[in-house]
Design a protein that fits this description.
By secondary structure, the protein is of the alpha+beta class. It contains six helices and 14 strands.
Length: about 500
């Protein structure tokens, strides 16, 4: 019995020891959990404190203007002054078109204006003379003087017309000289093509020589192989291989000869084109000579008109038909005034033609409307352009903003002018100050190509997003370049939210 009681006492003391050990462990766990709970609570409090009154989204990008550069007149590209991704200034020339045709058109319009002004001067002189002689119909001598003065005015008109004709013919002669320059360029191009064709022919002849040597070597190998095969020294497979090599060498020789024939044909064509260019040069020279002769004739006509003027002044003392001239003075005045008005209208038309030609000529010089970076350049030298054809785009990197797509549950407290902060993925760790400029008039899905129609089928509610335009405060820091399309994180400080 004593022994049994001792065993029970021992078991009871063991349970007490285990309970005593478990109690400290439980207390230790509680002591560890308490700091963790405190840290989590502080973190939640700090997050709530820092994010209180802010609305943020990662669905935001940098936006900017993309200025398209297009041609306003048709023509060939003469020079390209910019490269891809090059910074340009406002007014800097980007592309220069060939302006020779428009310059010739401008010179022709200027010559036409000079002619019309000369005719207007003659008509004005005629009106003045007829008006001054309207009261001189009473006397024979006065009417004779009027008639003689009219003859002098006509001679002056002829002189002005002849001089204007000389100006127009000089313009034609200048155009003919420019045609000679173009024809000489064509001749130089033809000569270069002939030289290239000669070089191609020499290369083809060298290929024939090489192919002939290769064919002779392989043919000799084939003959030796046949002899060895007849003696049983080589196999049939080796003989067939030698025969195939001989056939291939013959084919290569024929191909090389065909290349020589093609090169000869190309040389003939190049010579034909050069001959055509030579003929064009001769024709241009002939036209230039004709234009020069016409100019000399126009100068001679002006000289003759001056001689006629001297004769008209000499006939001033012998003028007659004073009475009949006096009776027709009112009609002559009306006719002269009408001619003067018609000459004025033609002058205005010629001036309008000159302004149009000058405007079209200015369009051949395509300049940058704003400062920016050249992007998407597709124009090439010598390319023929049509009006409205897109050549490149300019991106003004200093004029950028942010479009942030906030959820419809976030924009309730967003107002124009509220401060914002922008974090750009390109510059981690940096924050840029900004403010809300405007809110979109509709959700982004309404501007999609195929907006959803929720009136039919099963409706699933999807949270929509509204674009918000955010602009930066002041200029960007030095060295910071924000390109349109960069991803950003936008945060807006809203009032009354927490």
């Amino acid at each position: 019995m004593k022994t049994h009681r001792g065993t029970g006492d021992h078991m009871e003391s063991g349970h007490q020891n285990q309970a005593g050990a478990a109690a400290p462990r439980s207390v230790g766990r509680r002591l560890i959990a308490i700091p963790i709970i405190v840290v989590v609570a502080l973190g939640v409090f700090a997050y709530r404190l820092t994010t209180r009154g802010w609305e943020a989204t990662e669905d935001a990008q940098v936006e900017g203007d993309l200025v398209p550069i297009s041609a306003r007149v048709s023509g060939y590209v003469d020079q390209i002054h910019v490269k891809e991704n090059q910074h340009v200034s406002p007014g800097q020339v980007l592309v220069q078109l060939d302006s020779r045709d428009l310059r010739a058109r401008l010179r022709s319009s200027e010559a036409t204006l000079a002619l019309q002004r000369a005719q207007r001067a003659a008509a004005s002189t005629q009106v003045s003379l007829v008006a001054r002689t309207s009261a001189a119909g009473e006397a024979q001598a006065g009417a004779s003087v009027v008639a003689a003065n009219a003859g002098v005015a006509a001679s002056l008109s002829q002189i002005a017309s002849a001089e204007a004709q000389a100006v127009s013919v000089e313009a034609n002669a200048q155009a003919a000289r420019e045609a000679i320059s173009s024809a000489r360029s064509d001749v130089a191009t033809g000569e270069a093509q002939v030289e290239a064709a000669r070089a191609g022919l020499q290369a083809a002849e060298a290929n024939v020589s090489s192919a002939e040597a290769q064919a002779r070597r392989i043919g000799a190998d084939f003959m030796r192989m046949r002899q060895l095969y007849s003696q049983g020294a080589v196999s049939k497979q080796q003989l067939d291989a030698a025969q195939a090599a001989d056939t291939s060498a013959q084919a290569a020789l024929e191909a090389a000869r065909q290349g020589v024939r093609s090169a000869e044909a190309a040389l003939r064509q190049a010579r034909a084109r050069k001959a055509a260019a030579d003929a064009g040069l001769k024709q241009a020279a002939s036209r230039a000579a004709s234009a020069q002769a016409a100019a000399q004739q126009a100068r001679a006509a002006a000289k003759t008109a001056r001689t006629v003027l001297g004769e008209a002044e000499a006939r001033l003392s012998g003028a007659r038909a004073a009475e009949s001239g006096a009776r027709t003075v009112p009609q002559q005045i009306s006719i002269s005034k009408a001619q003067n008005q018609a000459a004025g209208a033609r002058i205005r038309q010629a001036e309008a033609d000159i302004r149009t030609a000058q405007l079209l000529l200015s369009y051949t010089r395509i300049a940058a409307p704003v400062a920016g970076v050249v992007s998407q350049k597709s124009v090439q030298p010598g390319q023929y352009l049509q009006p409205g054809q897109l050549l490149m785009a300019l991106v003004p990197l200093r004029n950028v903003w942010v479009v942030a797509n906030f959820k419809e549950t976030q924009i309730g407290a967003i107002r124009v002018g509220q401060p914002a902060e922008i974090e750009v993925d390109t510059y981690p760790g940096r924050t840029f100050r900004a403010h809300v400029d405007s809110l979109g008039a509709a959700t982004g899905v309404k501007f999609s190509l195929l907006p959803p129609q929720n009136a039919t089928g099963n409706f699933v509610k999807v949270v929509q997003r509204v674009p918000v335009k955010i602009v930066f405060e002041g200029p960007l820091p030095e060295g910071v370049v924000l390109r349109p399309g960069l991803n950003v994180v936008a945060r807006v400080r809203v009032a009354g939210r927490g």
